[in-house]
Automatic annotation (TrEMBL):
It is a multi-pass membrane protein. The keyword Cell membrane applies. It is found in: Cell membrane. InterPro entries: BP-dependent_transpt_permease, MetI-like, MetI-like_sf. It comes from Streptomyces monticola. This is ABC transporter permease.
Length: 290
């Protein structure tokens, strides 16, 4: 049964507004603020970081929070706060490259498949189905065995792994858009298929692509961190959040979990913020009220 707020009932009206805020703009603004602050901290890392992230100080090994080192130091005396700030650069840049690459390639593949149809659409659909059967971690292991471990290899591997997820969702929407009356009208007016795809289909699908890329960004960051954690991503002494979690493992056994704890906490908060941002954009741009 539907309910409607009554202006005369001030308590119900305030409750309704609070619920709308929590379900709508409030969560979107909060998540967007977190993402923006982390991105800003990454961009201003040289200004904000109190120390060189790779500066080793044997006299300050495993120090707790002090006025000199707000978040303490790691097993080599490096400042954890400085490494988190500089680590945000690699930790954000790699997922950005992966999601943008997979998003653009997947969108192009999806639109061309929906427009051309026939054997090409069946071929693309079959390839996407096959690609779903190869987990990103397995691909990363194989790629590392062939090309060697590194962040670049992990980025290429994840771009391939995320492409079918992007393409499959956009293809379904492109098929619906392809059969709308305005597309037929544009064709009757003499507009070529490529112009229709570039000037009309692609812009109309951009909100969906933006939601997909935003949501995938958090999961990609998590995957990049996992690859670095097991030694397939960024390599020491690089400042990267997943690598910091792995490097702090010995500190946990020594009763100094700060490095792993803070890096892991930043990863969790950022991934949650990306998910909330993606959900908020989905509701605002796509009208998804789930």
């Amino acid at each position: 049964m539907s309910t409607y707020p009554l202006a005369s009932l001030g308590g119900e009206s305030r409750t309704g507004r609070l619920r709308a805020l929590a379900r709508g703009r409030g969560g979107l603004i909060a998540a967007g603020t977190v993402v923006a602050l982390v991105a800003l901290a990454a961009a201003l890392a040289p200004v904000l970081a109190p120390y060189d992230p790779d500066a080793v100080d044997p006299a300050a090994v495993y120090q707790g929070s002090t006025p000199a080192h707000w978040l303490g130091t790691d097993d080599t005396g490096r400042d954890i706060l400085s490494r988190l700030l500089y680590g945000a650069r690699l930790s954000l840049l790699a997922p950005l490259v992966v999601t943008v690459t997979a998003g653009l390639a997947g969108t192009a593949l999806a639109i061309s498949s929906a427009w051309l149809g026939g054997w090409y659409d069946r071929l693309v659909s079959g390839l996407l189905t096959v690609a779903f059967g190869f987990p990103g971690l397995i691909l990363a292991v194989v790629a590392a065995a062939v090309f060697g471990a590194g962040l670049g290899v992990a980025m290429v591997t994840l771009s391939i792994a995320y492409l079918p997820y992007m393409a499959r969702t956009v293809r379904a929407a492109a098929l619906r858009e392809r059969h709308l009356p305005y597309v037929s009208a544009l064709g009757m007016l003499g507009m070529s298929g490529w112009r229709i795809c570039l000037r009309h289909l692609a812009p109309n699908l951009m909100p969906l692509v933006l939601v997909q890329v935003t949501t995938a960004f958090g999961y990609t960051l998590l995957d990049i961190a996992a690859f670095s954690f097991i030694g397939l991503g960024a390599q020491p002494p690089a400042s990267e959040w997943g690598l910091m979690v792995a490097g702090g493992a010995t500190g946990i056994l020594a009763g100094r979990p700060e490095q792993s704890l803070y890096a892991g906490l930043v990863i969790v908060v950022f991934v949650i913020a990306c998910n909330l941002l993606g959900n908020g954009l989905s509701r605002r741009l796509l009208g998804d009220e789930r």
